[in-house]
Amino acid sequence: MEVRVIAPNGTIGAGYKEKSLERGIALKPHVIACDGGSTDSGPSYLGSGTPKSSRQAVKRDLRYMFLGREELGVPLIIGSCGTSGADVGVDWVRDICLEIAAEENLHFKLAVIKSDQNKEYLKKKLKEGRIKPLTPAPEISESIIDKASRIVGVMGYEQIDRALSEGAEVILAGRATDTALFAAIPLRMGADPGPTWHMAKTIECGAACAVVPAADGMYAVIKDNEFTIEPLDLESRVTPLTVASHMLYENSSPFLLREPGGWLDTTNSQYKAIDDRSVSVSGSVFRKAETYTIKLEAAELIGYQSIIIGGIRDPYIIRRLDELIPFLQGYFKLKVRKLFEGKVKKKDYKLHFRIYGRDGVMGPYEPLKDNVGHEVGILITVTAKTQQLASDIAKFVAWMSAHVPIPEWQGIISSIAYPFSPPEIERGAVYRFSLNHVVEPDNPLEMFRFNYEEV
Q1: 3 state SS of 433
Q2: Residue 291 pLDDT exceeds 90
């Protein structure tokens, strides 16, 4: 028995070559699956419920997948709809799918699986001691749960399998592990869990493990105790190294990958080149966990933000940045208090300076902090409890930061070059991730809601 799987791309809306998908359809896969989101781009998409990709881009990618599914008569599975997998994102993708169905005269049974979590349910689980921290995890309390703008549970393959059992031909899932989308059909068909989960991990990002990585598709075949994988684009290829290294993508271990129901273990996996563009993998095993867990993801509103972007080329100022930034922090603290006549407290806002070209990416962990070039970029962020307050402070900070005096210069100087006028830019609401925990449910399905409809 063999099971054939295609991933048209690493994520819906990123685009892919139509010829690649045409080849994938010609290979007659048993399932077409694609990821619709992730936490990669930060907490804003979960907190605000907005998608990262444009509607037009998502509709374009989905249309060709739907037409391919129609031709083959196989399931189409989309996970983490709308970037974050929140209910609002699932509804957004559902509307696009119904629009495509109407335009193309398509008929199918649709399953929608929603993953937004009930806060009272979570507080009950917390009291029962059935919410456990992952490492590193922030503090958790009922207050943290209440303050979250949205909380989603990350489903595994069991929830998708339930929808397939109900006859679903198209599945739109809320937040899900990327791997579950590709593992569900092979597991349902009786494939070995070891190579199934390893295949799913490798194919989840489409042609990301190709040489060169691309926004395009991948094809995998599971047979007996191994799987083979190749790019859908005949001009592309994978190697044993690129396939093996994908275990480290979004994963802290090169050998272990956690799923709700257990662990993929690739410690003894063997990677072999079949030819110059495809690879076979064997020896992977899946170890069932004693306790089934569902990971929680939550985003909490922390305020509203305005930013200022500038550049510094003066060598004297660059040399004095370690003195100037703490000076400016204290200076603005006093000035803001006077400017707002004591009505704005330090707790009402945060002011942060980030220097690109020195340590803007790694901050205090940067090992080459002293290797500064002839110019640096500066990003100043003001985060406050209201957008108006953030903008008012940013205007003052931008103005005063442009003329910081230093001993090497006499008279007024211009210390920062601003590329925009006005220099301050409103970013709106900003969020932080507030949960990194897992729940121990009574059963795998209780945290998710299923809805079916004939389209």
Answers
A1: strand
A2: yes
